Amino acid sequence: MIQALIVLALTAACVGGTPEHRQIRIATGSPTAVYHAVGTALASVIEQELPEVDATVLVTAASAENVQLVSSNAAEIGFTQADILVSGVSPAPNMAALARVYDDLLHLVVRADSPITRLQDLRGRRVSVGAPGSGTGVTVGRLLSVAGMAEPGVIRQERLSLDDSVRALSNREIDAFFFSGGLPVAGIKKLSGASATRIIDLSDWAAPLRAAYSDVYVVRDVPTSAYQLPPVATVAVPNLLVVPASMPDDLAFDLARLLMERRDVLAAAHPAAERLDIRSAIATLPVPLHPGAARYFKSVKP
């Protein structure tokens, strides 16, 4: 009899006790880049709106590392450029997408007094091509390949993070650096305010990149308002939020809902999030939209 009462008490405690918390680790990027700003805001929104979920932010090298973390179940959400998932780097079958978020623009930054005015002028120069594990590194590798500049020694490549690239350019330790991110990139904006800089037009290379790799590459403008610099056009690629395909449908539904309903909070953290749009959010190729996220977008279809 006593044993039966104990079992009943334990059962009641489990039924009426505190629900088990879910863990959401958000793989972002450099602390001064867009992924980290939006990811940190998203984590705050999740914790405020979903009390049964604990959200944390991971500082990473960005896209390529983020995809690996999500694929290996070391993160539940990852920001990534769409081009990381095409042309020989196929998305893992256990991966899905919450939404297309905004476009990443490829920046080629030089000092204002630099003789570099086009991509080909990088020959023989010291150039940061992005940190190992970054989406920047993948995109730049493909760009240099279609430009016939990928062979060792054509440019003197450094693999620096955004923060280290900014410091190195300021100290004249490198001649230029690449970085792919949503507008405006905080590190580049800070640099342009402190030192005379320029951004090189890369728009002519979008078509060769499409022909060689994927249609995800398009041309987008960097307006004067982004950095108070002359406007230029450059190569851009869609940015996605990827998750494990095994994520419960109800959680994916809620995360997609929060992305749209709390877009103002995300945009306050970084203007790139203003580009979140219900119509474009479902365009997540080459990764399928998670069924839970798809159910949310269908429920609010204009």
Automatic annotation (TrEMBL):
Domain of life: Bacteria
A Pfam family this chain is assigned to: NMT1_3
PANTHER family per the UniProt record, alphabetical: SLL1037 PROTEIN
Annotated protein name in UniProt: C4-dicarboxylate ABC transporter substrate-binding protein
Protein source organism: Phytohabitans rumicis
